[in-house]
Every structure is written in C-alpha cells, then in structure tokens.
Amino acid sequence: SSSSFLHPHSRGQILILPKNQHFVLEHAAPFSAFLMDSFGRQHNYLRISLTEKCNLRCQYCMPEEGVQLTPKSELLTTQEIITLARLFVKEGVDKIRLTGGEPLIRPDVVDIVGELDKLEGLKTIAVTTNGINLTRLLPRLKEAGLNAINISLDTLVPAKFEFIVRRKGFHKVMEGIHKATELGYHPVKVNCVVMRGFNEDEVLDFVDFTKDLPLDVRFIEYMPFDGNKWNFKKMVSYKEMLDTIKQRWPELEKLPCETSSTAKSYKVPHFQGQISFITSMSEHFCGSCNRLRITADGNLKVCLFGNSEVSLRDHLRSGASEEELIQIIGAAVSRKKKQHAGMFFVLC
Ligand code: SAM
Ligand code: SF4
C-alpha cells in the first residue's frame, strides 16, 4: 500500500516498510524510495518492449504462426514511451534496454533512442536484437545515442540457424555483429541460448569466436517457458558448459562481477573478448534483481515470472498526473516478491 513507503520524492534515509520494519540506510546514494522494494533492491534498470512482433520465429520463443498481436491502438506510442521513461529516469533509473519481440522492426526505433538520449541521468541506452536489421540501422542508432548492444545468435552453422529461427538471415546477423564491433561497441554482447542436442556442441566454437573480436558471448541457460514445447531436459547447466570449456582452456580466468549483474564472466587469456554465463535456471538471481519491465502495451511487470501487472498505459490515457503515476509504480514495486515462484526443481 502507499503507506508502506515514504513520499515518492523523499530521498531520505529511513524507509518505512511493510510489517513496520524500519531500515536505516546509511550512506545511501540518492535514490527514490519508490523504486526500492521491501527487500532493499533499487530498481535502476528498466526494460521496455517496443513491439510484440518479430521477423524470426525462434522455436523456443514463438510458435510458427507468430503470437496474437495487440491492436496498434493499444500499444504505447512513441510519446507515451518517452513520458514513462522520463518518469523512471527522474526517479533513479539509469539504464534502459529496448527489447521485444524484435525492437528493430519498430519504425520509430531511431527516434525513440534519440528522445531517450535527451533524458538527463540516463547513462545507458541498450538494445537486445536478433541482428537481422542491424547493419542497416546501427549507424543511425549509434548517432541517436545507442551505447550498448546485445545480439542473439545461437549457432555458428547457417543451416542450424535456419532450423532454430525458422527463417533465413544467418549472414545478416553475422554482418551485424561485425558492424557493431567496427562502430566501436565494446563489448558487443552475443546472447546464445544453449540447448542440449542442438548447440551444446558449439560451446567451444563460440569461445573461439571471442579470440579476435571484442565480444562477450553470453551462454544463456535455456528456459522452458510454457508452451515452447521444449522440455527442461534441453537445459544445459552453466557448470556443465564451464567444465567443457575448462577442459579445453584450463587457464580460463574468472572476471570480477558486478553486484546486480546476472552474468558470471570468464576470459581466455590473450583473447580479445570474453564469455559469460546467464544462470537463469540453475542459480536464480532474484536477490540482486534490479529490473523492471514495461510491455509493448504498457503494462509494468516487476518480475519476468510474476503475473501481477499494472497498466501504465491506461493510467496515462485516463490523464493520471505524474505524481499519481509515481504512486502507482511505487506501489507495484513495493509488492515485488522476494523471489519468483519455483520453476521446476531448480528455482525453489
Ligand atoms: N528479438 C530480440 C532477440 O531475440 O534478441 C529481443 C527479444 S528476445 C525475447 C530476448 C532474448 O531472450 C534473446 O536473447 C533470446 O534468445 C532470449 N530467449 C527467448 N526465449 C528464451 C528461452 N526460452 N530461454 C532462454 N532465453 C530465451
Ligand atoms: Fe523471440 Fe527474439 Fe527469436 Fe524473435 S528473435 S522469436 S523475439 S527470441
């Protein structure tokens, strides 16, 4: 409830929490109380989905026929996205990632990046893309202010690429990865979902991919979402991948990790790039989760796995004031649970 946190604009030292716990935050950095949940997690990272549409049909993510699309009138407009982003940045968000669906098929993506770039206090504007339209768009995105990029690529074998994404385009993605390095993105993050029986035999090839390019290849534990028909036996744990890599590269170095980072990073000495593991299944990272998400139709989700959503779009369209929106967002964040409900056996 709104009584569970201080006035949204208070950047004070005492946070009144549910169950009447009182926390004294010593040396706390100025940060809006409304973006802090009852477990002390400061949410400074916002992901915004620009569209539900995609030009690929990855087997683990979308059905062949695509997903049921929300009518355009119900999606956030450019202006609404910027209004919400401004509000979050004002309250302490310093990193925004544009995602989707495929964010680069939204026609106004360059304008959105340009508008975000004007927000004072926003340090990082990132995008997660399948890379198909990247070579064409990246120079303009960079000029507009895009400063971090993740490109998804699960295989280095063109035929396997076509199988998994059910479309052509392998060479476009590779070209996009090279373009990103040429334009100075450092590192260029490459998201690789590892699936047993599909690409777990390519883990070492992906490590080699980091030899001469400033990449961070991020091996992602495959998550068996409802309806993607790929059961959890396809999940390859990070420990298993790490074992394989250490057999080939015993000198693999562990890199220091940031507190809120979801990645465990390593490097083969003398390689330009590095590798990381996103252990979404074997070791959840709820405890340090600093993320919030806005869906393409304007729902705020405080947890990727939670069902509780609040429609910021509806509040915006019914004329809510900035102050009211802040209250609504603050209440949603304060309701965020300590960790999401267990998925199969691993996340209990
Ligand atoms: N279309 C963009 C892309 O593919 O990069 C952005 C959206 S996509 C949903 C974001 C990331 O989620 C991609 O890196 C994708 O590989 C990953 N992803 C999708 N389904 C997944 C699953 N079942 N398990 C693990 N990662 C998944
Ligand atoms: Fe899903 Fe991204 Fe693949 Fe599209 S490209 S189907 S959004 S993972």
UniProtKB/TrEMBL annotation:
Its EC number is 4.1.99.22, 4.6.1.17. Pfam families: Mob_synth_C, Radical_SAM. Pathway: Cofactor biosynthesis; molybdopterin biosynthesis. Keywords: 4Fe-4S, GTP-binding, Iron, Iron-sulfur, Lyase, Metal-binding, Molybdenum cofactor biosynthesis, Nucleotide-binding, S-adenosyl-L-methionine. It is an enzyme of class 4 (lyase). Its cofactor is [4Fe-4S] cluster. The keyword Lipid biosynthesis does not apply. The keyword Cell division does not apply. It catalyses: GTP + AH2 + S-adenosyl-L-methionine = (8S)-3',8-cyclo-7,8-dihydroguanosine 5'-triphosphate + 5'-deoxyadenosine + L-methionine + A + H(+); (8S)-3',8-cyclo-7,8-dihydroguanosine 5'-triphosphate = cyclic pyranopterin phosphate + diphosphate. InterPro entries: Aldolase_TIM, Elp3/MiaA/NifB-like_rSAM, MoaA, MoaA-like, MoaA_NifB_PqqE_Fe-S-bd_CS, MoaA_twitch, MoCo_biosynth_MoaA/MoaC, rSAM. GO terms for molecular function: 4 iron, 4 sulfur cluster binding; cyclic pyranopterin monophosphate synthase activity; GTP 3',8'-cyclase activity; GTP binding; metal ion binding. One of its GO terms (biological process) is Mo-molybdopterin cofactor biosynthetic process. In the N-terminal section; belongs to the radical SAM superfamily. MoaA family. PANTHER family: MOLYBDENUM COFACTOR BIOSYNTHESIS PROTEIN 1 (PTHR22960:SF0), MOLYBDOPTERIN COFACTOR SYNTHESIS PROTEIN A (PTHR22960). Isoform MOCS1A and isoform MOCS1B probably form a heterooligomer. Isoform MOCS1A and isoform MOCS1B probably form a complex that catalyzes the conversion of 5'-GTP to cyclic pyranopterin monophosphate (cPMP). MOCS1A catalyzes the cyclization of GTP to (8S)-3',8-cyclo-7,8-dihydroguanosine 5'-triphosphate and MOCS1B catalyzes the subsequent conversion of (8S)-3',8-cyclo-7,8-dihydroguanosine 5'-triphosphate to cPMP. This is Molybdenum cofactor biosynthesis protein 1. It comes from Geospiza parvula (Small tree-finch).
